[in-house]
Amino acid sequence: MKLFIAGFPNDFDDTDLREMFELYGTVTSAGFVTDRATGKSKGFGFIEMPDNTEALETIGILNGTRIKGKQVSVQKAEERPGQSRPAKNFNRRY
């Protein structure tokens, strides 16, 4: 299950994020979305947890908690309409 996260302290990096969520289950990917120009975090990101039960329990535990004075949001990620695209086949020859 893919989780949307927001509100984490600015000094958290992808490694901190992964380590925190691994306390609650298996994590296949974790990262903040960064600005292409500056490389700085945009303040939100995504976690992927393969076990839906662990993911839902993690949402229940972490959503709304405070970390270093900031209230964090952890929710099931929702696909935005029109954003679902088939994967590109980069091995295709023309």
Describe this structure in words.
It is built from two helices and six strands. The protein has one domain (2-76): Alpha-Beta Plaits, CATH 3.30.70.330. 21% of the residues lie in helices and 29% in strands. The model is unreliable at 85-94 (pLDDT under 50). The protein is α+β, with helices and mostly antiparallel strands and 94 residues long. The strands form two sheets. A four-stranded antiparallel sheet has the order 2-3-1-6, with helices on one face. A two-stranded antiparallel sheet has the order 4-5. The chain is globular, with a radius of gyration of 15 Å. Strand 2 (29-34) and strand 3 form a beta hairpin.
